Amino acid sequence: MVKSISALNFRPPVESKTGERKGTKPLPEPTSIQQVLLLMVVHLCRKILFIDPNIKVGIYIMLVFFGSILGDVLPIPNSYFSRKDNIFNVYFVKLSWGWTMIFVGSFVYLTSSVYSCGDKTKIRKHMLRLLFATFMWFFWTKLFVTIEESYGYCSKPIVRSSNSRKQCLSKGLSWNSFSLSGHTFILIYCALIIMEEAKALVSWEAIKDHLRNEDHNRSSEESGSATPLDCLSAEQLLFVRDKYEKFTPFIRLSFIAMAVLALLWDIMLMATIIYFHSTPEKFVASVIAVLLWFFSYRFLFSRRLLGIPLPGEGSFRYMNPAQPLQMLYARRASLITKTEKTSSFMGMPLSPPKVGVDDHTGGTGNGTPKFKSKAVEPDLVHNDMIRNLSPKNKTNFLHLFDVLLNNNHVLTL
User: Fold this and answer.
1) Element (H, E) at 284
2) CB 285 within 8 A of CB 214
3) Are 200 and 131 contained in the same domain?
4) How many domains are contained in the chain?
5) Range of the domain at 221
6) Catalytic residue among 43, 126, 183, 399
């Protein structure tokens, strides 16, 4: 009797499945609190720099035109920014090109060293963009001064000479001419250059995942998912891993400094619009800056007419320079109804959206969400193709296409 009771109290041992295989895909290393805080600051800076330049250009043109008219008509009181000797004008705006080249130059050199695998020829080609911009800045600013000196006149007649403007001002008189606003030109031009060069940081954090997965693929007998680094040699992969870990902290700091400069240039542009120069002088200068940006980044560099590549183009493609960071989750956001809200952290949803079953919540009545349109997204997939997926499968499906777009792998129909 005792034996039978003891037999009931103990279950027989369960045989382990020897054929069961455990996952071998490497996991990311834990992130420290300092890195999380730094990434949060970088994320805020992305909000400043990752605005569509085409939209920012329209804002600049309208702001200069209508803001200058309001500044001429309305009696705007003087402030600290209306003084030419304010600290921001003396130490930053007048040296704006130097400040911009210091931080943008370091950012371009560090990032291009990584995605060009240390190829000095490719790095020099990326630096040529800044050299070309410097030449344009020097040429146009000198042209502005030449126009002001050659086609102006003094308030009182003096002996005409090559230094007539300096003689006029030295005698306490005023020089009347069409003085193109150099501040408007350089502030807009610097801000647009910063925004264009900052695109190299799009998907920069994904390089760390690519390195980890590529190491796993090369060391494991099993073939994993392909990465953008599979075209690199062992020496190039080792170089990228070393420089990425060494340069990334400095790249982030340079990116933050570029965002601060872009914000400061916009503030000082507003001060210039309100207090200095006439409306035609500022408007013409802004148009020249925009046309110069368009000629260089939308025509010259994009068509490789001088052999100069766009930011982010190197020995491997870790991002799509024509696709801003916000568009990576554009499809996922478009599937959420207007009345539905989802919590997010640093621009990424924390949980998949809840699907309602009532008609007033945007559903179709059968538990599926109502889509806003049937348009084809950048991944060439219709919204109707994923409307009947469950919330979990839909989230996984969209994440898959986000990764494909991020790695420049676009499906074709």
Assistant:
1) helix 279-293
2) no
3) yes
4) 2
5) 33-300
6) 183
